[in-house]
Amino acid sequence: KQQTTLTTTTEEEEKKGLKVAHNLAQICHCHAQGKVGSGFDVSSAIYGSHIYTRFSKHVIASLLEELEEKASSSSLSNTLSTK
Q1: CB 83 within 8 A of CB 58
Q2: pTM summary value
Q3: CB pairs under 8 A, 24+ apart, for 73-81?
Q4: What is the predicted pLDDT for the residue at 38?
Q5: What number is the average pLDDT over the span 23-40?
Q6: Residues 61-78: pLDDT tens digits?
Q7: Arithmetic mean of pLDDT, 17-44
Q8: C-beta of residue 40 within 8 angstroms of C-beta of residue 50
Q9: Which end of the chain has fewer CB atoms < 10 Å from its terminal CB, N or C?
């Protein structure tokens, strides 16, 4: 009979995981929308209630620009390769 070992996370690890999930979801959501919105929808989806700190667009502006450039060059590559 094989034994299963269960690992538990501490409250601190859980908070850290939620923060990472929130920040990543917020960046993805901003990229998908092409702008920084209020973030309350993302916050409530992660935390179930509002624990929210809004960041300025300049915090991720360079990341959003890089993602746009990659998306544009990828679209261009796909367009050129299909012709």
Answers
A1: no
A2: 0.50
A3: none
A4: 82
A5: 89
A6: 888 899 889 888 876 566
A7: 90
A8: yes
A9: N
pLDDT tier, 36 (very low <50, low <70, confident <90, very high otherwise): confident
Whether 28 and 49 have beta carbons less than 8 Å apart is answered as no
Tracing tokens 């993602």 back to the chain, one arrives at 67
DSSP 35-63: S----HHHHHHHHSS-------HHHHHHH
Torsional class of 10: left (φ above 0), alpha (ψ -120 to 50), beta (otherwise): beta
Reading the block at residue 32, the tokens are 């998908």
Q: Which long-range contacts (CB under 8 A, 24 or more apart) does 30-33 make?
A: 30/60, 30/64, 31/64, 31/67
d(CA 51, CA 7): 27
Tokens matching residue 74: 């990828």
Distance CA 77, CA 12 (A): 44
